[in-house]
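re the bet — no i am not wrong, look at it urself. input seq straight from the record:
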Amino acid sequence: MSGQLPVQKRIVLVVGAGIMGTGIAQVAAQTGHSVWLFDTREGAAQGALEKLRNSLASLVTKGKMTDLDAQALLANIVPVARLQDAASSSLVIEAIVEQAQAKRALWQQLEDIVGADCVFASNTSSISITAMAQGLRHPERLVGMHFFNPVPLMKLVEVVSGLHTAPHIAADIFTLAQTWGKVAVHARSTPGFIVNRIARPYYAETLALLQEQCTSPVVVDACLKAIGFRMGPCELMDLIGHDTNFAVTESVYQANFFDKRYMPSLLQRELVDGGLLGRKSGRGIYDYAGSAIKPQLVATPNANFPVAKGVQLHGSDPRIDAWASRLTTAGISFIHQRNSDWIGLSTPTLQLRQTDGRTASSLGANVAVFDMAFTTEGSHALAWAPSARASSACAAEAQAWLSALAYQPQQVADQCALIVARTVAMLINEAADAVQQGVCTVEGANQAMKLGVNYPAGPFDWLAAWSAQGVIQVLEALDAQYRGERYRVSPWLRQQAYAAMDEV
C-alpha cells in the first residue's frame, strides 16, 4: 500500500461495530476518510451510527463541536450489509471478538474480496500478529493497530509488527495513526505487546500483597495514588472487571510458556469463581452496594516532632533535603550525613530507613522502614513497617517522625520493599526486558504507559529518578525472599547498573 494512496485519501473499512469499532470509524471519518462500517449482526452497524449521532449531538450542545463538523463526520461513515460492498477499500481495520480463529477466518475471507494492495490492520490487544497472518496469501500486509478505549480520547496506538509484516506497511500505519491525531509507538508482536505486558506487575504485586495479608486494599490504593496514579490497582481491577483482568493475565502467562513472572493470582481466581467481578457485578475487592460503607485510611493524628537529641539525616537525596528544610524550620538541630549508605533519619533510639528492599527485621532491632515516594511533598499516604524486634516505643517514635514530616503513615506488615518500591521496581524490570527483547524502545515504553494507561510517569522516567542499582537491590531482596524466578533481574537493567559504575 505504501506509495499507492496518500493516507488522507484511503477508503477505510472497519469490521466490528462495537464500542472499539465505532470509535475507530469516528476518528477515521473525523480526519476526512470515507469509512464503511460492517458487522455480522443484522442492524448493528446502523445502530452504532445512530448512537454516534446522539453522542455527537451532545458534544454540539455542550459547544465542544460544531454542528457542521458533526454532520460532515457522520456523512463520511456508511454502514454496509456485506463485505463485498466494500471491495474497493484500501485499509481494513478489524475490531471483532478477541478470538484468533475468528480473526484469521475474516482475513482469509477478505483476501477474496479486496485488492492485493489493501492493508489489513487488527485492533487485537493480545493475539499474535504472526499467528494471525499464517495461511494468508499476502501475510506481509497484516499489521496490528491497537487502539485504547475510548478511542476518540485515548492518544496511544500500538503499531504491532509480526514476523511477516513488511516494514513499509508498519511505517505507513504509524504515519496514518499520527494523521489521526494519535501518538503511535512501534511494537514487536509478543504476548501483551507493550502496555498489557508492562502493566502486569501493577496488578500482580498488589494481589500478592493482599493474598499474604500484608495490608488492606485501601492502603495499597492510597499509597500508589500518592505517587500520581489516577486509580489504585484495586479500584482499577474492579473497574476493568476481574474476569477480564484475570483472562489477560492468564493469556500472557500461557503465551510466555508459564513464566512465573506472569503467574495469575489465586486470590483473583477466587473472585472470578465467586462472581465478584467488580463494579459490573456490584462487588469485587470493594463493595459497591448502595448501603456499603466505603473503607477509609486509618487516620493518624498530626504529631509534633519528637523531642530528641542526636538527630541525624542520612543520604544525599531530594527527599532528605526536604526533610532538612522542615527540621530547620522547626528549630531542630541535626547532622546531615550525606555520605551515608542509606537514606533516612536516625536518633539514639531509632533508625528510620527508606526501603532498599530488605525488611526492617533483617536490618536490626530498633529499625523501621518507609516506602519510596518519588516526590518531596508530604501530606500523602506512606507505607512503613517496624522491625519485629522493635520496642513499642521505637515503633511509636517512627510513626511520630513520619507524621511530623507531614506524611500520612500507614503501618503495613514488615515485608520486602513495602508497596511503591516493590511495584515500581517490577514495572521498571518488565519494561527493561521488553527493551532487551526488542519489543519496544525506551521512549516507546514511556509513551505507551503514560498514554495507554495514564501512568503518571513512564517506567524509564522512574528509573532516571531512582537508579539501576537501587532497583536491582529491591528485586534481589524480593528474589531472596520468594525465589522462583518471578523477581529475576533483567539483563538490560544490569547493563545499566554496570554503565553507571563506569561513569562514577
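see?? The domain at 312-411 is CATH 3.30.750 (Transcription Regulator spoIIAA). told u. also The chain has a mean pLDDT of 94. so pay up
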